[in-house]
Amino acid sequence: MKKSSILVLYTGGTIGMMKDPKTGSLVPFDFGNIYDNMPILRNLDYVIDFYSFENLIDSSNMTPEVWIEIAEKIEENYEKYDGFVVLHGSDTMAYSASALSFMLENLSKPVVFTGSQLPMGMVRSDGRENFVTSIEIAASKTDGEPCAPEVCIFFEDQLLRGNRATKFNAENFNAFSSGNYPTLADVGIKIKYNREYIARPTGKKLIVHKNFDRNVGILKLFPGITHEYVQHALATPGLKGIIMETFGSGNAPTTEWFLNDLSEAIKRGLIIYNVTQCKSGSVEMGRYETSLNLDKIGVISGYDITTESALAKMMYLLGEGFSRSDVKKYLQESLRGEMTV
Ligand code: ASP
Q1: What is the DSSP letter of 242?
Q2: In a mutational test of the pocket of ligand 1, which residue from 90, 117, 308 has the highest number of ligand atoms less than 8 Å from its CB?
């Protein structure tokens, strides 16, 4: 039987760091020497190829341009490999995984994002484990079909849907959570795939979308928020869409100035997307009086979408040039399993 082949894309982040023996400081790992640094990889019965981005970045410097580079590498190599592993800093991994999920329409192969809290070159690093398991997940098949043909995030012992994940811990090896969607796989002695929650290959041709519109923003509500602050945010030049992080099930102040400002902005053409600040649960506009008003003035419900996914989705929909009414329609539909409507 033909061996599974995996392409590993290295974008930067902690996982690829090791101590420079001369200076003692952390420097990016040379993937040309990966088998010397990680001889265990020789024990995996797969063909593993590596591609290292020229500009290795801490993921805090992530941009839509890099998302496009990642998608293009996958597109160029899509037929050649059975799966892809993306080594990426954990800080903005949930944004990137969400963005890639929207870019890769009809994806039928695994794209597994992973990283680590400690550099691979450190004795107690979680990176080696995350890396090896991600390769195994990207290569796994049952009855000839990939086990997890989705954009996912693997960390510690959980495989999560990428556009449902959030980084919730800056220290623990278990850094990601998915408050509104079950794990795709749980990893212990065995990798237990939760098949009922994993998307099946569509059998359709991969379409790669490569346009993002950055004219979006996030407005997090808080008690005591001032009129000036809201006014300035909504008046940002060129702004087309805003993700409004509301309280609980989508609630916001009922103050007159606040609702008037939002209503005027919507009339001007701004799209306001209601996402909850809670890590689990859904926006339910109209459940309380404090969200009924939002519904009336034309705020769009984000249901149980994460902020990271909402941002990527809005940038993607606006970037693709859909009409304003189509953007609003798609924001309220699940396009890649990113929300439960
Ligand atoms: N700051 C790093 C990054 O996101 C942290 C990590 O790699 O986990 O690139």
Answers
A1: E
A2: 90
Q: What is the DSSP string of 60-123?
A: GG--HHHHHHHHHHHHHHTTT-SEEEEE--STTHHHHHHHHHHHEET--S-EEEE--SS-TTST
Is 187 found in the same domain as 232?
Answer: no
Residues 276-311 pLDDT 10s:
999 999 999 888 888 899 999 999 999 999 999 999
DSSP class of residue 299?
Answer: P
Q: Give the domain-ending residue among 141, 175, 208.
A: 208
Task: List the catalytic residues.
Answer: 14
Model pTM above 0.90? yes
Among positive and negative, which fits the CA dihedral 90, 15, 155, 138? positive
CATH number of domain containing 263 = 3.40.50.40
Task: Assess whether the C-beta atom of 250 lies below 6 angstroms from ligand 1.
Answer: no
Residues 56 and 121 in one domain: yes
Q: Same structural domain for residues 74 and 11?
A: yes
Q: Ligand 1: distance of its center to the CA of 173 in Å?
A: 13
* Cα–Cα distance, 131 to 31 (Å, whole number): 13
d(CA 209, CA 334) in angstroms, rounded, equals 17
- Indicate whether 341 belongs to any domain: no
> Which residue's CA is minimally distant from atom 3 of ligand 1?
89
Residue 204 shares a structural domain with residue 221: no
269 and 322 belong to one structural domain: yes
How remote is the CA of residue 96 from the centroid of ligand 1, in Å? Answer: 13
Q: How many domains does the chain have?
A: 2
Q: Is 60 in the pocket of ligand 1 (CB under 6 A)?
A: yes
pLDDT in tens, 235-288: 999 999 999 999 999 999 999 999 999 999 999 999 999 999 999 999 998 888
Please give the residue range of the domain that contains residue 260. Answer: 216-331
